[in-house]
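Thread: "does anyone have the structure for this chain?"

Original post by V.I.:
We have the sequence but no experimental structure in hand. Need at least a predicted one for the grant figures.
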Amino acid sequence: MLVLLFSIACCLSSYPGRVCTRALIDGGDDVLLLDVQDPGSDMIPGSYSASLGTLVFKASTDLAEFKDPKIADRAKDALIIVNCGLGGQAKLGAKLL
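Reply from O.Q.:
Generated one for you, tokens below.
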């Protein structure tokens, strides 16, 4: 599984990585933009929500009752872009994946 980190702060600024990340999202039909913030936080439109506290369960293929197929059953070479508000949660989420 290929994992990139991104933060909403970068997305909303003129950060150069914003253009590259947007191109990855727009150009790939199998790219998952995963937001690991708590529910109710501002999210990038089109992102998929899985809070950091539940990510380890949702990404596990061993815990059938908790797993999220959109995360756990992804192809190993499918790109996941992990994002959050400032980057700290995204960094932890990417390490978990």
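V.I.: this helps a lot. Residues 8-19 have pLDDT under 50 and may be disordered.
O.Q.: and The chain has one domain: 2-96.
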